[in-house]
């Protein structure tokens, strides 16, 4: 039988950082929806105010804001917000203010695309196209770089240090101008930090490549800078890592990298967690560690067989956010969702929903559970989990479709037998992209 989630730790309060008092342990996972501008400004839009408003309505919630770009010189992509100018952060403040009006909290995930940046944009702006090593993540990117005569370049030590400082500046911008309560270092999904961590993308022979220790240096030095900076400090940031993401070219061929204790992502995750645990013992505990489960890679389900996070969770004793395939109780046939195969226990012909969630959140008193896809189609996800209401299934074609449709069209719970929860908009409105929130562009 499905245990009532309202009786689990999920609905007990918890404090993260110094003074972020959450009323429950459900986190909105970072979920990039490509609703920022494509005008070269990397600005958030009006659509996003409404989106984050509707998902922060339960007082005392924590949302992790979608990944934001730290600097032009570490790579740009369109439709994502940046946090490298005051104007961008003032625009983002319109969203964080809304979240705070709802008495909830928000952490800004910050990242650099590195080798997965948009090469055309970099060429147009005459910005460097750089990565730890000259290894393209996909054939298509290599072809584009060749056609544009704009090849990937290996970062110099000086450039590495500049980008680390860009992370520091970005974090300060988020906390001081953007109104964010926390920042999160994005160490997965094949972006720059993971490009350093992984031997797939890092073949350097200097102090930033080779051994696990050297490959972790880029991230660890940023962590140290954050901790030492008077405007940041340990309690103001979290770190997201994952051992099972194959996103953006992070594929480990099985013949070279068997799935055992020597699996490189397990080793670099363990190394980072040991470091963070050591800092915690020294009184420098970061706000949280966020990890993703082997049931998912990026935003896709995958087979978790033979994969486990237990060698990671046992190292870190601080606040832990776990994400990946934790929602199961969708309307219709839940077994259609791939991650549910390992997630639903069927005993005496009965489906037990949320078995993994209940087990993990009740295993200790420091675990929070993050949701991404379920929040896209259930703005009132927290209420639905608390009251064991069925969830509306997410619609992948709208994940990155830039428009209002599929972004603001999901409403709160309605009885599935009677109504649809789809909100109605005029066709022009459905197809419209957001208006920039940059001051000069707001009417
Ligand atoms: C549309 C979409 C965008 C995402 N964007 C990000 C992102 O910006 N940063 C990140 O770390 N993870 C991102 N993720 C991954 C989620 O945070 C989460 O780890 C993953 O979807 C598994 O959780 P779920 O099963 O609840 O969806 C994204 C996922 C989706 C579906």
Can you walk me through this structure?
By secondary structure, the protein is α/β, with parallel strands linked by helices. It has one domain (5-441): TIM Barrel, CATH 3.20.20.70. The protein contains 13 helices and 16 strands. An eight-stranded parallel β-barrel has the order 3-4-5-8-9-10-13-16. Strands 1-2 form a two-stranded antiparallel ribbon. A hairpin with a 2-residue loop joins strand 11 and strand 12 (300-301). The mean pLDDT is 95. Bound molecules: flavin mononucleotide. Residues 29-33, 66-67, 109, 186, 188-189, 240, 292, 296, 298-299, 323-326, 371-374, 399 line the site of flavin mononucleotide (FMN).
